[in-house]
Every structure is written in C-alpha cells, then in structure tokens.
Design a protein that fits this description.
single chain, alpha+beta, Rossmann fold, Immunoglobulin-like, 4 domains, 5-stranded antiparallel sheet, flat
Length: 485
C-alpha cells in the first residue's frame, strides 16, 4: 500500500522540491565523486516537535545540493535519543526526490541524549557494505544535536575517524562546544558549527553545504581514482597491494596505510607507471586501512580504499572482573611451546607457558577494571616466532545479591545474602539506624554469607549494607536493605 502524505508533509515536500529546483547552479555540488554520508540526528525530548520540523527543512536543504544515486552520493539517516534507530540506510534512496520525501516523513523519536552510543551505532550498523557503503567512496558523518551528551563521546568519535570517516558536528542551543570540537574532524572552522537557536540553522546551511561538497570531492577534485584494489602475498609483517590505473595520465601514486584501530598514517610514493607496492614492517595480527591516490601535480584523486589483516589472530572472550579466555590461531611450523604474557596497565606482567599443541587458555585472578596487554609468543627450536597481541579490559567486581532478613526479635535479626562471584575475599556488613550515618561494621570471611545483628534497639528501623571485597582489594557496590526490630 502506498503511504499518503499529510497536508503539512506535502506542503513541506513541495517547498523542499521548489527550493532545490530554484537553487542556483553555484549552489549545486557538481562532482562525479562517490560519497556515503550518514546523518546522525538528535531526536531527544529537548528538541521539541516544532523545532524538529526546522531540522527536517535544514536536512532537506543540506542534501538537496547533491546528485543522489548509487554511483554518486548516497545518504543514510539514523535518529537517536536513548537508543539509536536507523531510519534508512545508505542504499535506501536512489533519487533525490525519494530522499526528500523520506526527510519530510521523518518521525520525531523523543528520549534522552546518548550521543556516544549513537556514534558507535552508525559505525557498527550504517557504515557497512551490506547496507550500501562502497569501498571507493568518501565516508562522511554529520551529527546534529541540541544538547550535552549523557555518555562518553571522545573514544566513540575517534573510532569513526580512525576508520577514515570525516565527521561534521552541528550544535544548536545548549550543545557543548567542547563536545562538538572533540567529535568534529579537524579543522574545526570547516567541520564544527554551533548556533544559538534552531531559527539560525537555515542561515548557515549554504556554508555547510559548500564544505560538505568539498569533502565529497576530496583534495583531488575530479581526478579519476584508481580501481580494483587487490592484496596478496600476506605474511605476519607484510603484504602486497595491487591496483588498476585510471584511464588518464598519472604522474605518481600515493599509497597510505595505517592501523585501523588508530595510529600514524604512513605513505609510499611510486611512479605513475607502477601499479604494485609491498607494505612491510607491519605489526602481526593487525588490520590495516590502505588508500591509493592517483596524483597529478598538486591534485589527488579520491582514494581507492581497502583493508587487510596481517596473518594470525588472538581472540579474547568471556572477560569478567577477574578472568578472560584466550584463543589463538596455531602458529605455522613445529611449535615447542607458547609463552603467554599478560600485563596490567601500570602494573607488573606475568607469564605462563603451555604446550605447542595448545591454543586456548583461561587467565584468572586478574585485577578488575584494568586494561591488560596480552601476548602469545610461539617458541621454536631456533627461537621465538611472531608475537600475537591483543588487549582487553576487565569488568567491575560484582556486588553480593538477594539480601534477606529473618529471625527478627526486639533486639536482633539475621541478614543473609548470596555471593556475587566465586572469588570474594571478604565481606563487610554495616548497619545503622535509619537516617543516621554512623555505621557499625563487621568483617566476615569469604564463605560467610549470613550474620546476626545484635544489641539493637526495639521497634527501630535499621539500614544494612553488605560489601564484597576482592583479592585485588577492589570493593563492590553496596547491597542495601532495611529491617525493623
């Protein structure tokens, strides 16, 4: 069944189409470059329904300058508040008219402002090949928000930038400039916008679209990009990269590569008649992002992009507050043994050895809420082989649970609880009259999960706390309850 537009939506769509058609040729983004743009729109309650209409008009004006299609610019949109929701993926709309109609019908979500979760969401769900992202396109994210995030955003935005995604941050009213700067790609004067009210959004849309257009074109403008990126000859420290040159003349090719998780960008320049290069001195078991640019004079083409992982893999799973499971690929050849090293952040490392046929191990008695560097070193008759490396962060120590009271008398009662985890070292139970802050405490052994509170006052409500203390001296959150004598 075809959906019908409301009168208001139809009017807005007509206005957007009219505005798009009336834009001068200078306002259009004239390029044959491919770009995948994901709009991340704050739909929290602080926006308000009336202002959300302004956001729809703003988005319509912003995307109206682009030629939309599977071989040009694709635009997806995710709306977020507490939980992000994909409104449409990159490959959902193949024409500008279809895209504008979707913008007109964009619903208002409502909720809290969880920007960090939303940034992670678009990386994991929207910038994906199976929903339309193309390997040879420029990747751009545009955040529109009116408030301060209620969760962490620095690492979330860095993960996107580490994947080669250019980020714009647009803030309205009470949006934090500091947060916007930490999200936006440098330089801020191109990628960060902040206006005092929603009414001013449309005033800055032309400047934004010019910068977005330049991002779509990239530093190389219309120079044709190489095609058909292929990697081969994979080892633990190198691999070969091959590509097909574009049809026009090329002076040289610039090949850049960086660790996908973040790090410095390295580059190799080769003559324009060459179409292969070996990247070496790489880290083992590490994913790399590779870009190949055609270069003529000062101009560079859009990048031909691909990824490759050097040989081997270490998998860290089932991470708790004090344990983690390791599983790794068997190293080639006749391995005598593996040396497993695990070092806590700002701490001393430990080692354990296993037989060369073993490829799994459980680590225990770890420090909670701590990042561990884990290495697996195969050892051969002639010496150590390629090191496999990984990282994991242990979790929060669990609190005890299910606090119950029994055997209540005028001057005593029994408190009973259950273990939150198997490796508790001690329990601390505290009690005080309701409303008072001076507690009495008792320290119990790890196997004691019950305690009788005595010498209490009759007909009095007592607050009780039970805290688990672990071998690394970490303390759990308090398990809290109340009981009247």
């Amino acid at each position: 069944m075809k959906s019908r537009l409301s009168l208001a939506a139809a009017a807005l769509l007509a206005a957007l189409l009219s505005s798009t058609q009336a834009q001068t040729s200078d306002a259009q983004c004239k390029t044959t470059a491919k770009a995948d743009i994901v709009l991340l729109v704050d739909g929290s309650w602080s926006i308000g329904r009336l202002n959300f209409k302004t956001i729809r008009a703003f988005i319509g004006r912003m995307v109206g300058v682009f030629e939309i299609g599977p071989d040009r610019v694709q635009i997806g949109l995710t709306q977020y508040s507490g939980d992000p929701k994909t409104e449409w993926h990159l490959n959902a709309h193949a024409t500008r008219d279809s895209l504008l109609e979707a913008i007109v019908n964009l619903p208002y979500k409502g909720g809290n402002t969880m920007t960090g979760r939303a940034l992670n969401y678009i990386l994991q769900n929207n910038f994906k090949a199976n929903v339309g992202m193309r390997p040879d396109s420029r990747k751009i994210g545009v955040l529109i928000t009116d408030g301060r995030s209620q969760d962490e955003i620095v690492l979330s935005s860095q993960r996107l930038r580490d994947q080669g995604i250019e980020l714009y941050a647009i803030g309205v009213k009470s949006a934090s400039k500091k947060e916007l700067r930490s999200i936006a790609t440098d330089p801020d004067e191109i990628h960060m916008y902040n206006v005092r009210d929603f009414a001013f959004l449309l005033d800055m849309v032309d400047d934004l679209t010019i910068n977005l257009c330049n991002s779509v074109k990239g530093p190389g403008g219309e120079l044709e990009a190489p095609t058909d990126l292929v990697t081969s000859d994979l080892t633990h420290h190198s691999f070969s990269v091959n590509w097909t040159a574009p049809g026009g003349p090329v002076e040289k090719f610039r090949v850049t590569y960086m660790i996908a998780a973040g790090g410095p960008t390295l580059q190799v320049l080769v003559n324009g008649t060459v179409n292969t290069v070996v990247l070496d001195n790489l880290k083992p078991l590490t994913q790399y992002v590779v870009n190949v640019f055609a270069v003529v004079g000062e101009n560079s083409s859009p990048p031909l992009t691909g990824t490759e992982i050097t040989s081997g893999d270490l998998r860290i799973t089932n991470v708790t507050h004090s344990t983690m499971n390791l599983n790794w690929d068997a190293a080639p050849g006749d391995v005598l043994k593996y040396i497993i090293g695990y070092t806590p952040e700002d701490g001393d490392g430990k080692q354990v050895e296993v037989n060369g046929e073993v490829t799994t191990l459980s680590l225990s008695r770890l420090i909670s809420q701590t990042e561990y560097d884990v290495t697996i070193t195969p050892v051969y008759t002639e010496g150590p082989g390629t090191v496999m490396a990984g990282q994991a962060i242990t979790g929060v120590v669990p609190a005890p649970k299910n606090l119950q009271f029994s055997e209540v008398t005028q001057t005593s009662f029994r408190a009973t609880w259950e273990h939150g985890a198997w490796d508790v070292a001690l329990y601390r139970i505290g009690w005080t009259k309701n409303g008072e802050q001076i507690f009495q405490y008792a320290i119990l052994n790890e196997d004691e999960t019950t305690h009788v509170l005595e010498d209490l006052e009759p007909d009095t409500l007592y607050d009780v706390t039970v805290t688990a203390i672990y071998p690394d001296e970490s303390e759990s959150e308090d398990l809290i309850g109340s009981q009247r004598t």
